[in-house]
Write a structure and sequence with these properties.
Radius of gyration of chain C: 21 Å
Chains: A mainly alpha (318), B alpha/beta (523), C alpha/beta (323), D mainly alpha (328)
Distance between the termini of chain A: 18 Å
Largest sheet of chain C: 6 strands, parallel
Strand order of the largest sheet of chain C: 2-1-3-4-5-11
Bound molecules: adenosine-5'-triphosphate, magnesium ion
Number of domains of chain A: 1
Number of helices of chain C: 11
Oligomer: heterotetramer
Shape of chain A: globular
Order of helices and strands of chain C: EHEHEHEEHEHEHEHEHEHEEHH
Strand order of the largest sheet of chain A: 1-4
Number of helices of chain A: 14
Largest interface: A-D, 49 and 47 residues
CATH architecture of chain A: Orthogonal Bundle
Structural class of chain C: alpha/beta
Shape of chain C: elongated
Helix content of chain A: over 70%
Chain lengths: 318, 523, 323, 328
């Protein structure tokens, strides 16, 4: 039963597992193609990660309360559908995006209602919302694609102080989220609630508003992320936002967030998770990997990431 | 234990309304009555002791005050005015603070954050940020009051149970309440911390704060409380100034029958400490694990009940966990009847070991599972018939029923009820029960009777004796020296991870044992 | 299929309806996720309405098993004919058999089944051939630039027959062209616009000088546009620095981009014509007329050169861009 | 019920009630409002359609009971289907034509599920990796592998011409139903009447307690995933036989239905609680739903919306249990 503890510097390394892995992946692809590690391409990767990061940030909050929100993709779609219709009807893009955020607010609000008031299991409630949202979106768009006015694309590719707009948005979201989590009473209470809801209630935490806030926050992030994606795509297809729920959860968990609540961080955790996913895809394209091998390679890399993380959390003494 | 039981001369006590009063409170759970027309009050500047059997309804009363539960009927009053809390927020607003029976801490947060979860000091300038420095200072101030040396930023998961208990108390103090309710706050504290706690309570009393103190340690209750309320099956069966009660009277009121001694006499007479049996049942040699225990060696003879005394943090639990294969040890060896002990809990259970953990909620029970499932868990294998390990459900049923009666698990509890809904003491009985069922040859008990009422304790001691008489060896870790003295054939004392003393039955002496546990030559 | 409990019982072994008398048709699509399918679906709807036939609809969202259930459901409800967009060429065969057993005529719309003895009619284009034609044109344009162009293809869902057909057409054309073009990127998109976007972006990182892009479906043009305009390469076909663009389907987006001059060519399948043929085939079958086993969509590649005269036959041209 | 009955009894029966109630209510509604719904033929179709989900959800229930989750089942279905076909297909099978083809293929298929399950379980139990991520990556990997294999071996996205013996499972609904229901029943007995079943629960309720109580936690967890994997294989066998095709895209869309069915059936996503009958009820509920929605001839997007709405209703009907569970 005697177990030798890993040597100090191995421990140090494991402590930074997520960061290390992203670095490793980047370095690895970098070695294989001199095209990969160019500042330009790194920016591209960040750009592709922008929307997922935003959505995953909201998701992280929900996961921290031991909940889950499967409806983010659907919310994105409904929002995009409405925004798209408005855009085609000639409304100003700002208005369209505002509408989109409103949708996010509404979606999050409904989820909050279902989970806190009606006491539904988050999984099943948001699953239902996923179906409803998808259906609603298809109905609004009549499952037709919409090509948006170029203003959207201009926004998506606009630079402020040499940094692309989407990165500003994502950066702001992450920063705020991180501050909320680590520096505000609300953030700490979210962690407490996720760790032991009953105790949180006993301690006088107003758990219902707290839970509600988390789902609304997630809805907002979903809409915002959708907005960013919209300005990057310049169009809305019937599959807009599909799979986002899984990508968001994956990013968060890759970043070390526990699905059982109480543990996790937006930065660097979730952010790195999202970036990792995009970096892999970009690398594979640049290396002209066999299309059939994409999922295989991606899977292996994610697997290693998760493995390292679990080694870190379990092989190391508290 | 020094405790001035003279209540402060509060002159106009009659004129002032009681700090809290229960008026004909009734509460039931899904048709099962738990509190029946409970009526009593607690005065400001006095400590009211609340005692009763496991499942009598004590914690339920607290939960009513805390707003975690609502009474079915009856009236609560705080300082004379009606009080109907809808949530723990209301309780705080009314100036009521709690030390709940079960720890309500968040291991993933720091000590400071746990202390001020709901009233973090805000940074200046209306921003929602937490003022970290202020937070740390206030936390330190509270920690000093309970003698916790830790840095306020330490994550709570690093603290052992005892220290967590102190933290819980510190949190209650932080609330600046005028009414403080302590539900078995001493269960994982050892003598030193207990004394410290009672000092605190006396100081608070002189500040005119009302306290309700729930405990099964009747000695403490009689020493430190001014008024007493005795609860049985949800009814108040006795109340009045503590001076009017003796331990015997308390017990008979609680249990509803005479209980002339607290510890059963051992028959046949215990093995004399000096005579070492040829083949010790358990032979521990030089167990060492850096930072936990150092060079622990002792032997456990068949039929022997061996106690381990020590202060919190002495490493007793660690020792137990190492013996059961839960924690690693750097050096030393453990032999059972000469054979070296290997592997994890499963292997060791096969070797006849059993281990009652001190952390019942996280390691002892499946809270959501039923009473029956919990009781049966360890011994399921014995009721499984090969090839497909088919379960003999009736057999399991009878075994469960047997142990339930033996341990007097509250009759209001059904087998199918989730353990979560049991009273603290009844939960402890369930953990104990599942191990007793396995009739182990070596039984390791870490704080076996924490939260268990006198009546049930007696039964449990008898079970332990019966096991010993059948030749099992028993290792009892307890923070109650009286318990060890009353139960054991021999007592080892641990201090800072080392053995610091050994007392055979003949030479039991509370003061010496305490000295051995406290005395610090090093550091 | 003797084991099918619903067979025979509910629906007559021989059509009882008077010649041409088709009351209900069941239409089961594998998906409605792209312009192309929606257009076909709508056309079938309107066509049915025009012939006052009730149309029962079902969409399987890419799940063959669910599609089977839906077909059984149609049979069970005694439709007079079934129009199917199968998930793939093989899983559809048992469905056709089930319909045969119930003496209900089946038409496969736009996706052929693998060779089988199960009786049915297929109305479909030849993905490979039309793609080949399209890409041949793109390559001819590339040759005219005088330099060897780097090419990339956006692949569809790799388990979709049509996607694979188009890939094969592309590869064949490239093969034939010798070293006129050099394929530097084959990006799987799973029919997902965002993947397409990311794919094109990364491809351009690796090869900033990519000069030819073929997308397996027109609905991914917006993604391409997004990247090219951010790179300042979104140029018309007659401008310098134009990236040669080709697609497949011939939807409204493609039509618009062609008229604007950004897209060089796209493979058009004649959706409307296919829809009419599909329904006609069922009506004929019911009427006891002989129906050919295969009705070929005379699809074609529409290019900047023949845009004027062929536009009228391009469904995307007749369809409003806005929903 | 009489108020003297203590909580748990009432709660248990509430579980049972909720589980049976949902499909019942839905059935009555559909029977009342949709013509041609309550016909033998249609109900027959409905049951046959529900079989694969039943098997799959049963396996998932076991994993959920241990407090885990197995997202990889859908990929297992695809991979199993392709491998099986590669063994027995008359076009491209390694054993094409041989009488051994079908039995060997069946063995290979079940083996595939077991292997993937073993992989998942080991990572989760021994390497302590989170179940969600492990099974998500295996999904990615196995899914990709299936497509790649089909492509490499037969240069097509799917494989046809399976031996008649195998297809019996498809075109004899009685046989398929027998197999599926037997599998579910066996699992039910395993959970309720055997040591292993109790171990699953204990591990799900509290792994530390289980460990200290002498439960071989690691082995138990691994077994659960192996079981789930094999159930996925069995599902794949049913689907493959019914569609007469080995294809990597079989069952791809089932994931949310599977977990949905279990949860609607009263299985907790946090471990411990869950029953096969409950899950079966959940499956029946979803089967009724999709069939009924077909009957109503709504357009695609309405179907999706209604599906969501009805699942919501189901959850609401179920809410009393949640409330009790939260009481403390
Ligand atoms: N949520 C609940 N559901 C059902 N029964 C409950 C619930 N909470 C408490 N009970 C029952 O109420 C009775 C009283 O419980 P309580 O915790 O007040 O006892 P107690 O006096 O604190 O006992 P102990 O000294 O062991 O802590 C017990 O029989 C318990 O089973
Ligand atoms: N979870 C833990 N993390 C870190 N240190 C611990 C932990 N548990 C115990 N320790 C340390 O190990 C030593 C002994 O712990 P513990 O308090 O359990 O001993 P004990 O004699 O069993 O006291 P108790 O009365 O609490 O059982 C102490 O130094 C304590 O600080
Ligand atoms: Mg209590
Ligand atoms: Mg201890």
């Amino acid at each position: 039963m005697t177990r030798p503890l890993p040597s100090r510097w191995i421990r140090r390394a494991l402590d930074q597992a997520p960061v290390l892995l992203v670095v490793l992946v980047l370095a690895g692809f970098g070695r294989m193609s001199d095209r990969f590690l160019t500042p330009d391409n790194l920016t591209q990767i960040l750009l592709q990660a922008a929307a997922p990061v935003i959505v995953a940030t909201g998701m992280t909050f929900v996961l921290l309360t031991a909940g889950v929100d499967l409806s983010v993709g659907a919310v994105m779609f409904v929002g995009a559908a409405i925004a798209g219709k408005m855009a085609l009807a000639g409304y100003a893009p700002t208005l369209c995006l505002a509408a989109m955020l409103a949708v996010g607010l509404a979606g999050g609000g409904i989820n909050a209602l279902l989970v806190t008031r009606l006491r539904l299991a988050a999984f099943i409630a948001t699953l239902a919302m996923l179906f409803i949202g998808r259906g609603l979106g298809r109905w609004i768009t009549q499952t037709r694609a919409m090509n948006l006015p170029d203003t959207f694309l201009h926004w998506g590719s606009a630079n402020v102080l040499g940094i692309p707009g989407p990165l500003w948005v994502a950066g702001a979201v992450v920063l705020i989220a991180q501050l909320i989590l680590s520096r505000t009473p609300f953030g700490r209470q979210v962690l407490a609630f996720g760790n032991h809801p009953e105790a949180a209630r006993r301690a006088g935490v107003r758990t219902r508003p707290l839970q509600a806030a988390v789902y609304i926050l997630c809805g907002l992030c979903a809409a915002l992320g959708g907005g960013v994606a919209l300005t990057q795509l310049g169009s809305v297809s019937p599959r807009f936002g599909e799979q986002y729920e899984f990508d968001a959860i994956t990013a968060a968990v890759l970043g070390g967030t526990s699905l059982f609540g109480g543990r996790g961080r937006v930065f660097p955790g979730t952010v790195l998770g999202a970036i990792l996913l995009k970096a892999i895809f970009s690398g594979l394209v640049i290396l002209q990997a066999d299309p059939y091998l994409y999922p295989l390679i991606t899977a292996v890399i994610i697997f290693v990431a998760v493995l390292l993380d679990s080694l870190r959390t379990h092989l190391l003494p508290a | 234990m020094k405790g001035d039981t003279t209540p402060p001369t509060s002159g106009g006590r009659e004129t002032r309304p009681p700090a809290v009063s229960f008026e004909d409170i009734e509460k039931g759970f899904f048709g099962v009555p738990v509190l029946k027309r409970v009526r009593f009050s607690a005065q400001a500047g006095r400590i009211t002791g609340l005692v009763g059997e496991n499942g009598a309804g004590k914690s339920t009363l607290m939960n009513l005050l805390g707003g975690n539960l609502q009474p079915d009927s009856g009236q609560l009053r705080v300082n004379g005015s009606p009080y109907a809390p809808r949530g723990s927020g209301d309780a705080r607003a009314a100036g009521i603070a709690f030390v709940h029976q079960e720890l309500n801490l968040f291991p993933n947060l720091s000590i400071a954050e746990n202390l001020f979860l709901t009233e973090f000091p805000r940074a200046a300038g209306g921003l929602p940020w937490i003022d970290r420095r202020k937070l740390r200072d206030r936390a330190r101030h509270l920690l000093d009051q309970v003698d916790l040396a830790h840095d306020p930023d330490t994550p709570v998961e690093r603290l052992p149970p005892g220290e967590r208990q102190l933290l819980e108390i510190a949190r209650a103090l932080g609330a600046q309440a005028h009414l403080l309710l302590l539900d078995e706050p001493t269960t994982s504290l050892s003598v030193r911390e207990c004394a410290r706690l009672f000092d605190l309570m006396h100081r608070l009393r002189t500040r005119g704060i009302a306290m309700v103190y729930i405990s099964h340690a009747l000695g403490d209750v009689l020493n430190h409380c001014d008024d007493l309320v005795i609860l049985r099956d949800g009814e108040v069966v006795g109340r009045g100034p503590a001076a009017e009660f003796t331990q015997e009277r308390l017990v008979s009121l609680m249990v509803g029958r005479e209980l002339n001694q607290l510890y059963p006499v051992r028959t046949p007479p215990p093995v004399p400490a000096d005579s070492r049996p040829r083949e010790p049942l358990l032979d521990v040699r030089g167990i060492t694990q850096p930072g936990r225990v150092r060079d622990i060696s002792f032997r456990l003879a068949p039929g022997e009940i061996l106690g381990v005394a020590g202060l919190m943090g002495a490493g007793r639990s660690e020792l137990a966990r190492i013996l059961f294969g839960l924690d690693p040890h750097a050096s030393g060896e453990i032999r059972v009847e000469g054979r070296p002990l290997e592997g994890g809990p499963r292997r060791r259970i096969r070797e006849g070991l059993a281990f009652l953990t001190e952390d019942r909620r996280h390691e002892g029970l499946c809270l959501e599972a039923s009473v029956a499932d919990n009781l049966a868990l360890v011994t399921l294998g014995q009721h499984a018939r090969t090839p497909v390990r088919w379960l003999d459900l009736p057999g399991i049923g009878t075994a469960v029923a047997r142990i339930r009666d033996a341990l007097q698990v509250s009759t209001r509890v059904t087998d199918a009820q989730p353990v979560r809904t049991l009273s603290g003491g009844n939960q402890q009985k369930v953990v104990l029960g599942k191990w007793l069922l396995s009739e182990p040859r070596i039984l390791i008990l870490d704080e076996p009777t924490r939260g268990i009422d006198v009546g049930a304790r007696f039964e449990i001691y008898q079970w332990i004796h019966r096991l010993a008489d059948r030749g099992s060896g028993i290792l009892v870790i307890s923070s109650e020296i009286e318990e060890l003295i009353g139960l054991c054939d021999r007592i080892l004392v641990m201090r800072q991870g080392e053995l610091s003393g050994e007392f055979p039955r003949g030479e039991f002496n509370r003061e010496q044992i305490l000295a051995a546990a406290l005395h610090t030559s090093t550091s | 299929d003797p084991s099918d409990p619903s067979a025979g019982k509910k629906s007559p072994a021989v059509p009882t309806a008077a010649p041409g008398g088709v009351r209900t048709i069941g239409v089961a699509f594998e998906t409605l996720q792209t312009e192309f399918w929606v257009a076909g679906f709508d056309k079938l709807k309107s066509e049915c309405k025009a012939r006052n036939i009730t149309m029962l609809e079902a969409v399987a969202d890419g799940d063959a098993a669910r599609q089977f259930d839906q077909v059984k459901n149609f049979i069970q409800r005694g439709v007079d004919g079934i129009i199917l967009v199968p998930k793939d060429g093989k899983t559809v065969i048992p469905m056709i058999r089930a319909a045969n057993a119930a003496a209900i005529p089946v038409v496969l719309y736009n996706r052929p089944a693998d060779p089988t003895d199960a009786r049915h009619t297929t109305v479909a284009p030849d993905n490979a051939a039309i793609t080949r034609e399209t890409v041949d044109y793109l390559i001819s344009v590339a040759k005219r630039t005088g330099r060897k162009q780097k090419a990339m293809i956006l692949l569809g869902d790799l388990s979709d027959v049509n996607a694979l057909g188009r890939r094969d057409g592309f590869e064949a054309a490239v093969q034939a062209a010798g070293d006129a073009v050099d394929v530097v990127a084959r990006v799987p998109t799973d029919w997902n616009q965002e993947k397409a976007l990311a794919g094109v972006q990364s491809a351009f990182q690796a090869h900033p000088d990519i000069g030819l892009i073929f997308t397996s479906s027109d609905f991914m043009f917006p993604s391409i546009k997004s990247v090219l305009s951010s790179l300042g390469k979104w140029r018309k076909y007659d401008q310098a620095g134009h990236v040669i663009l080709g697609g497949f389907d011939g939807d409204a987006t493609a039509y618009q981009l062609m008229t604007e001059g950004y897209v060089d060519a796209t493979g058009v399948q004649d959706v409307y014509w296919e829809a009419e043929q599909a329904i006609q085939a069922i009506v004929d079958a019911r009427a006891g007329k002989a129906v050919p086993a295969r009705i070929d969509d005379r699809g074609f590649a529409i290019t900047q050169e023949n845009l004027k005269q062929l536009a009228p036959r391009m469904w995307g041209a007749k369809q409003p861009l806005r929903p | 019920m009489n108020p003297a009955v203590p909580v748990p009894l009432r709660r248990l029966s509430a579980d049972a009630r909720a589980a049976i109630l949902l499909p019942l209510v839905l059935f009555l509604l559909l029977a009342a409002f949709t013509p041609g719904f309550a016909t033998a033929g249609n109900l027959g179709n409905l049951v046959v359609a529900g079989l694969p989900l039943l098997v799959l959800a049963t396996g998932q229930t076991v994993v959920l009971i241990t407090g885990g989750i197995d997202l990889s089942v859908t990929a297992v279905i695809g991979l199993t289907s392709v491998l099986g076909a590669l063994v027995m297909s008359g076009d491209a099978g390694w054993l094409r034509g041989s009488p051994a083809a079908t039995p060997v293929a069946l063995a290979v298929m079940l083996g595939t599920g077991a292997t993937v399950g073993l992989l998942n379980g080991s990572c989760i139990a021994w390497l302590r990796m989170p179940a969600f991520m492990v099974t998500l990556t295996t999904t990615l990997f196995m899914g990709g592998l299936a497509v790649w294999l089909a492509q490499r071996q037969v240069h097509a996205e799917s494989i046809y011409n399976l031996p008649a013996a195998f297809l019996l499972l498809g075109n004899r609904p009685g046989l398929a139903a027998g197999v599926a229901i037997a599998a579910a029943a066996a699992t039910h007995l395993l959970l309720t009447r055997t040591l292993l079943g109790r171990w699953f629960q204990a591990v799900g309720y509290n792994p530390r307690t289980a460990l200290i109580s002498g439960v071989p936690v690691g082995g138990t967890v691994v077994t659960a995933y192996v079981l789930s994997g094999m159930m996925a294989s069995l599902t794949s066998i049913l689907i493959t036989a019914r569609l007469e095709t080995g294809s990597p895209s079989h069952g791809r869309t089932l994931l949310l239905d599977v977990i949905g069915a279990a949860v609607i059936g009263g299985t907790s996503l946090f471990g411990g609680k869950g029953t096969v009958p409950g899950t079966a009820a959940g499956v029946l509920f979803l089967a009724l739903l999709s069939n009924g929605l077909n009957q109503l001839n709504l357009s695609d997007f309405f179907i999706t919306m209604v599906k969501g709405a009805v699942i919501l209703m189901a959850a609401l009907l179920d809410v009393r249990r949640n409330r009790w569970a939260r009481e403390s």
